[in-house]
Amino acid sequence: MEIEMKIRGLMVDPTNNAPIVILKDVKGDSVLPIWVGLYEANAIALEVEKATTPRPLTHDLLKNMINGLNASVQRVVVSELRNDTFYAVIWLEQNGESVTVDARPSDALALALRSDCPIFVDEEVLRAAKVLPNPADQATSEELRRWLEGLNDEDLGRYKM
User: Fold this and answer.
1) Domain CATH code at residue 30
2) I need a surface site. Which of 8, 72, 84, 90 has the fewest CB within 10 A?
């Protein structure tokens, strides 16, 4: 089963300064942090803030190409968590047929924002993301999860990239 999520915000991990995209369940309290690269976080931040650039960036180009091929992005799904790596699928529709494309979650999320399409996370991914293989990391991870779940709008603004 897939759970619809929204991008709740972008922030910087206070422990290692890595960018994090925060996804939040539309109908519940589930929160999924996904650590992403700096360039991908910037692409997401630009679209969240509706900033314009003088020339199309990579995700703008991708959207333009999809539209130019008479296709549309229907949804993106964070579909798998394997070896501590998230995987995503972009669902496209072209001429009445569905096509799926493998993608990094950061790219899928940046494209979803530009295409104004829903974002989903597979329920198994949410379950797996809450379990850490190394018990020594459990406390740190659980503390981070509680901290992320407790963030309000002011906090997200304070840690904004």
Assistant:
1) 3.10.690.10
2) 84
